[in-house]
Amino acid sequence: MELAIKIFQFILSISILVILHELGHFLPAKYFKTKVEKFYLFFDPYFSIVKKKIGETEYGIGWLPFGGYVKIAGMVDESMDTEQLKQPAQPWEFRAKPAWQRLIIMLGGVTVNFFLAWIIYGCLSFFNGETTFDTVKVDAPMNYTSVAKGMGFQDGDKILKVDGKTQNNLDKLALDVLLSDEITVLRNGKEVTFPTNDEGKAMAFRDENPRAFLTPRFPAVIDSIYNPKTLQAGLKVGDQVVAVDGKKISYYDEFQETVRNSAGKDLKVDVIRDGAIQPLVLSVSKEGTLGLASYKQLTKFYETKHFTFGESIGRGFTRSIESLTYQVKQFKLIFNSKVQGYKKVGGPLAIIKNMPVDKAKDGSVSIDWTLFWSFTAMFSVWLAFLNLIPIPGLDGGHVIFTLYEMIVGKPVPQKVLENAQMVGVIFLLGLMLLIFGADIFKIITNKF
Known about the structure:
There is one protein chain. The protein is built from 13 helices and 17 strands. It has helices at residues 2-31, 99-128, 146-151, 170-178, 198-206, 228-232, 252-260, 309-329, 331-334, 348-353, 369-388, 395-408, 414-444, and strands at residues 36-54, 57-72, 130-133, 143-144, 158-162, 182-187, 190-195, 214-215, 224-225, 240-244, 247-248, 266-273, 276-283, 292-293, 302-305, 358-359, 365-366. The mean pLDDT is 86. Its cofactor is Zn(2+).
């Protein structure tokens, strides 16, 4: 059921993005009286699932869910149908239109993608507000794992700046650190600035959750107990663990680490209850767990900010730019030879796996619409950026050739356009095969 919901969300999100992106090309093309031969959701090599011709345009749904397309008459596109281009240009063809009109048609898709993200982020800010974890409210220093220490952090460090800028939002702080060049911390009462080590970043990317290297610290106050044996041993909700086997415990992560390292053993645990020390003996499972949790106290560090309708418009734009900025910055990790971020790049199968769902206590799964729309907005910005990359076969490639024509005053030779388009299509097909191959390899090697 969970997999079915994730697949449904993926198809729904992609469908929304593709249809609106292609409408961004379709509408200005029709406005400038350019013939549009096809409008397709998904690709249709050899056959389509559904198709119907209305007027001069064939509308359909293909069977290959990689995107979609509009086929505009007189344009060198991914179909590589050049027969029509051997004839004299007709008034309704793309190639017969002024360069500025062609530029608007080609930029229409990415423009719609960006405005869609802007609208979605604005609506989320207006209707839901924004909940953030304010690191300023946490008095204790962060918990730095071996990954964080590999980047250059030391126990007790308090993060002041990342690349010269303050960041109080915990969700963004971990990503900022991964993308950073240098960190400024308060260490032993002094400000210390150090470069972030790429080897530590590489360790983070090898983890299932690359951002888990940085977590807030809080007292080991127990607020949930799931294991009956732990309850029978005398532990109660509200107890604060202060020592294990005579060793002082200040924070919950210290208690967690001790428990993980004591699988199958009994632990002598001291807790504070009603102001007095209570000694207990707790049996750790073979998996290194006690069946308890401590997370509710973190709610006091969360803050929800609400926005008026007018404020949400500006906030939607800012969030779109932030999303785009983060995604562009991640490129340097993907191509970094030490970090090897490309190993985390996945295709449709990886996206489906990571689609957000809402899991209830009874085990049922449903769509978390807030997370769904957040994902769709983020993906919309990402598609806008990818399509603007100046590669033949993408919108950015067409835009570059059109700008060249506008600057030089004469069009790029038809043969050059055809050859460039062929190279671009081969490159994109190869990239798609590589990404899909990476997904399949991870499944085969159980690393998915």
